[in-house]
Amino acid sequence: MTTTTTTPPSDVTADEFAERLFGAALGTMEILSVHLGDRLGWYRALAEGGPASPEELVARAGGNLRYAREWLEQQAVYGILEAADGGEGGADERRFTLPPGAREVLTDTSSLGYLGPLARMLVGSAVQMPALLAAYRHGGGVSWAQLGEDARESQADMNRPWFERELARALQGVDTVDAVLRRPGARIADIGCGAGWSSIALSRAYPQASVDGHDVDAPSVSLANTNAAAAGVASRVTFSTGDGGELAAEASYDAAFFFECLHDMPQPVAVLAAARRAVKPDGLVIVMDEAVAERFAAPGDDLERLMYGFSLLVCLPDGMAHQPTAATGTVMRLDTLRDYARQAGFRDVSVLDIRDFGFWRFYRLHQ
Predict the structure, then answer these.
(1) Is 47 helix (H, G, I), strand (E, B) or coil?
(2) pTM of the full structure
(3) Do residues 132 and 317 touch, judged by C-beta distance below 8 A?
(4) Of the candidates 47, 103, 205, 332, which lies 20 to 30 Å from 265 by C-alpha distance?
């Protein structure tokens, strides 16, 4: 996701730009069709049960037969599914297969390549387009609560494999971080914990520690409690509703983490200041956020394009839904984070040597 767009906009002809928009329209239709297959359980039915005719797919997963036939054919035409006629029966006996690569990306919830939920996030924002238009015209925003279940589950499900498979390795690979988290009886705050997968991963990596998760979204907190109980760590992980500003003023925590959430907070400085007060002088405050470039440049690479897209449709409108607000948006560059940190009383910010961790970068805030 780092291919740079090098052609200056002024050098793009009308035909080339028309072709670009046409390709974008095809991509939009593809994303919407992926959302249908994801939410209807049709991809899972193909992954678990093997090739299926429309009748077989509906028998396995439910749905309307006529729509199932159209969706299967569309998926094959788009090159997502493979189609094979069933001998003399012809099209009426056609069966459809979900190939291994697509199966992993669309259905394997443990894979680092799992991107099926991405469609949920985009659909969750797309259905709010009237509210987004109103916000862009008059101010205000569209809150996380308005984006609803699609956005909430998308965020949790896409981040989960990285937390479950890579977070322990990443933190244990930085000696100064690992030593603090290994303290007997260490207390860890996970601010903006969402559905709790980061808190659960921390608890598994450091079983002598206790983890307190905080999130402003009550349904996410409820989901986090369910996930922690299912993971068998509920005795060491607790969750509460709040933005982290309610952390106890005394320095009682060994570490505080902000996993991909600080840029969404309307008052990041206040929450960072609360974390600084709550963490011991020899403790840690770590922010994981999008690995955007240090400076604005246009045209940008695919990662910058993706993050600005999320900012336009999700993160900035969510931040603007609350007043007063810093209105950070998804593209929080190092200079912005450093400014927030210094306003909150930290001396400086450094980048931790954690690489190949998806779209994210880890920052340590120094007291």
Answers:
(1) helix
(2) 0.93
(3) yes
(4) 205
